[in-house]
Structures are given as structure tokens and as C-alpha cells.
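Q: Give me the 3D complex with nicotinamide-adenine-dinucleotide.
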Amino acid sequence: MFLFNKICYKHSTFLTMKSVLITGCCGFIGFHLAIRLLSQNINVIGIDSFSSSYDIKFKKIRHNILKKNKKYKLYKKDLSNINFLNIKKIDFIFHLAAEAGVRKSINNPLYYVEQNISNTIKIFEFARKHKIKKIFYASSSSVYGNNKSYPAREVHTLSKPLSVYGISKIATENIAYYYYKIFNINSLGFRFFTVYGPYGRPDMSIFIFFKSIFNKKKINLFNYGKNLRDFTFIDDVINYLDACLKKVKSKNNFFDVYNIGDEKSISVKELVKLIEKTTKNKAKISLKPKIKLDPEKSLAEMKKINKFIKNRYKTNFKDGIKKTSEWIFKNKKLFIS
Ligand SMILES: NC(=O)c1ccc[n+]([C@@H]2O[C@H](COP(=O)([O-])OP(=O)(O)OC[C@H]3O[C@@H](n4cnc5c(N)ncnc54)[C@H](O)[C@@H]3O)[C@@H](O)[C@H]2O)c1
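A: Here is the predicted complex, encoded as C-alpha cells.
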């Protein structure tokens, strides 16, 4: 219980809901969202296949924390068979399960079509069948692809995808629109910008850099470390989801898509320097040319969501890295190979 209480959040707004379904609840964002909901006495029904997208011990660790709460129930199943779930009453669906790695989509595009597009249709069909009218789902900053206009705004035309992953998230948003228009299923989609924090994904840059430094391994910096990323701290993401939920909980008609970022870009080179400082170790850096799949920059404009919720959440990057590194140091054995 100790760990569970430690990462419970202070704010509480999911109050009127009884049961929610979270797909991908043992993933990074799903786990933090589940913690928030459970701390507010909401039943969380989770589905997670423990896919092999990265080392499943991270998913097990998250699940082991969640299962300490009696209001949590996990179905360790693949979404492709969502019909196994015969649920009487779900108030809300958070659809977060997806194959989330961008670069891997280059070698296995059809897998991303199945995981991210087909499964999204299955979730919306499930909602339709069970008359669940409210869904929040994960989109991504990758929908902006090669867009050269910064900061990225929700009104920008999404015509320049750089990866099948990005294409799959554009499709996800279109699917949500279709189910809204034709079947009145309300939804909000969230374009997350590089989320990081405790219990984060070991396949993401921050964790790879820590791991490489601990193991004295080389760090490849593509585009010579000049790529700029808008890094978003997990607590901010959960606070935004929470605030949006509060806004829509009594609404019967809503549809929109929002950026969730930090409105600040940091170069990957700067990030490595910060991690060197934190670990008090020098990284072995190998500068590499640009990878076509990687946009040179990501930067969110947050006006739309800030206006919607009439608030702004913004963790200073250094503070976010400090909290993340404290967790990494406590769990250092996970990163030593
Ligand atoms: N973390 C980020 O920086 C980021 C940025 C943009 C978008 N997103 C999106 O946010 C969502 C959550 O991302 P995350 O970082 O928590 O990723 P994650 O990989 O940690 O979580 C996804 C979870 O979904 C599960 N899953 C995948 N396919 C499944 C299936 N077919 N059936 C059941 N479970 C399945 C995985 O086992 C995993 O636990 C994803 O949709 C991702 O594309 C994340």
C-alpha cells in the first residue's frame, strides 16, 4: 500500500463515475491514470495484453502496484478479442492501448494498422454495442509529422505524416469523428507530446540515455543531437485528463482533439547534458545523421486546452527530470544490463 499511496494524486474530480475501462492500463500513461482514478474510489477495469513492445517487467511492476487496490480488475487479454468482456456498466472508456513506438513502425507497418487502427474501431464498436457514450483516447504529436509551422496547433492540416505510427493516430482521430457523427459517441482525443516521468517507458530517449550511461554504452544521437522535443511531465498529462473529464462529465454532446505538451522544445543534446549532470557521469556519444522518420522539432501550442479547462499545468523540465531520475535511481537495477 505504501507505494500506491506515495504516487496517488492530490486533485480529485472523477467523483461521479463508478466504473471506467482503461485499455493499456499497465502501460506508462494508463498506469498513472488508473492510480488517479483508484485514489478517487472509482472501479478501474483494465485491459492489457502485456505486449512485447518493451520489457514486460515494467508492465508487471505497474500491475503489481495497481492490484493492491480492490477496485482494480485486470483482464490480461488482447484488445482484438474485446468481445470477451461482457460488462454491465461502464461509464467511460479511456482508450490508451496501442503500439506506441514510432521508429519500429517502419519495419512492421501492418502490425500498427492492426494494433492502432483495427483495435480502435473494435473499441468504438464495443462502445456502440454497450451504449457507452463517452471516450477519451490517445492520439500523438506524431500526427503533425513534417509540419514546419511551430508551435503545432490543432487547426493545422494533418497532411504530412512521417511514420505509419503517425498515420495510425490520424486514422484514430478520424475514427472518433465517424463514431461521433454517425453514432453520437462523444470523445476527446489527446495529442501527447513525448511524455516522461516515474514508471516511464524504457524504450523512450530519457530512459535509454540513463541506461546507456549506467552501462557505459554508446548513445546514438541522430540529426547530430539537434532534434528538438517538447517533453511533457506525466503529472501534467494526468492533470489535463482529469480537468477535461471534469468539463465533460455532465455533457451529452462533445467532440474535440487537444494537444498536451509543455510549450517548450529542448534539444536532445541538452537532454543528454542534463542527464550527465544528474548521473555525474559522462555519456559516450556517437553523433549520427538524421533519420527520415524523426521530425526535427516538436512543439505544442496549448491555448486550446488551457482555454477549455481554464487552467494550465506546467512542470518545469528540470523538476520533472529530477523526479524521474529519483525514481530511476531507486530502481537502478532495472536499468543495469
Ligand atoms: N508516452 C508518450 O510519450 C506518448 C506520446 C504520444 C502518444 N502516446 C500514446 O499514448 C498511449 C499510451 O502510451 P504509453 O506511453 O503509456 O505506452 P505504453 O506502451 O507504455 O502503454 C500501452 C499499453 O497498451 C498495451 N497494449 C498494446 N497493445 C495492446 C492490445 N492489442 N491489447 C491490449 N493491450 C495492449 C501494452 O501492453 C501497454 O501496456 C498510446 O496510445 C500511445 O500511442 C504516448
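A quick observation: Residues 202 and 208 are 6 Å apart (CA to CA).
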